[in-house]
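Hi all, posting the design record for the shared folder.

TITLE: backbone redesign
STEP: 1 of 1
STRUCTURE INPUT:
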């Protein structure tokens, strides 16, 4: 009975992205959603309080930046990333999808994101539905939905065991089992694989 009462206090579990979730994220709320790979705990990347809350909830290494999901290439300009088409060969629709790309991002303005490393990894997801959602919310930090050192949540029930009522919403897309995204960096026109 106690477990059922505790469950009742958890945030509502939704089945899809909607305007209410978009509103909550824009106001600084955080939650668990299905990404193009696995479940992620997400928040507005341009909201320092939301980002700091995710670091705290995940017990994440404070020196380790988080991957940022974007809905379109234009979003990179919000982080002062200068896209050089010749260097990065990035055109609309040509992004490698499940690949996150590390770009230089320096300066004090984004230190809460790059954590002094002066670079950030961005990913333009494969899913049309997720990209459409990201165009409405803006860029989202999206580390895996787990406490650091623990396995990523494959279901919303597993995510609840990690975060309970400390997040503002959950979006349930069933069981999600996938590898994390590939991670690359481009230097001097050469691709460096950081994670396969």
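Okay, here is what came back for every position:
SEQUENCE:
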């Amino acid at each position: 009975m106690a477990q059922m009462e505790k469950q009742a206090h958890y945030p509502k579990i939704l089945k899809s992205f909607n305007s209410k979730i978009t509103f909550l994220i824009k106001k600084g709320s955080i939650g668990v959603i299905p990404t193009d790979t696995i479940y992620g705990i997400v928040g507005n990347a341009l909201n320092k309080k939301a980002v700091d809350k995710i670091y705290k909830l995940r017990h994440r290494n404070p020196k380790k930046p988080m991957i940022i999901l974007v809905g379109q290439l234009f979003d990179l300009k919000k982080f002062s990333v200068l896209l050089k088409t010749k260097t990065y060969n990035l055109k609309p629709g040509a992004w490698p999808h499940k690949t996150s790309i590390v770009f230089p991002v320096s300066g004090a303005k984004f230190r809460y994101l790059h954590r002094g490393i002066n670079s950030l990894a961005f990913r333009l997801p494969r899913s049309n539905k997720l990209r459409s959602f990201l165009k409405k919310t803006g860029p989202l930090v999206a580390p895996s939905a787990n406490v650091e050192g623990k396995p990523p949540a494959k279901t919303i029930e597993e995510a609840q065991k990690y975060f309970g009522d400390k997040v503002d919403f959950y979006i349930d897309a069933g069981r999600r089992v996938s590898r994390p995204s590939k991670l690359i960096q481009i230097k001097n026109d050469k691709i460096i694989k950081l994670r396969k």
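COMMENT: Helices lie at 2-8, 19-26, 48-58, 85-88, 111-114, 128-137, 156-163.
Let me know if anyone wants the other runs.
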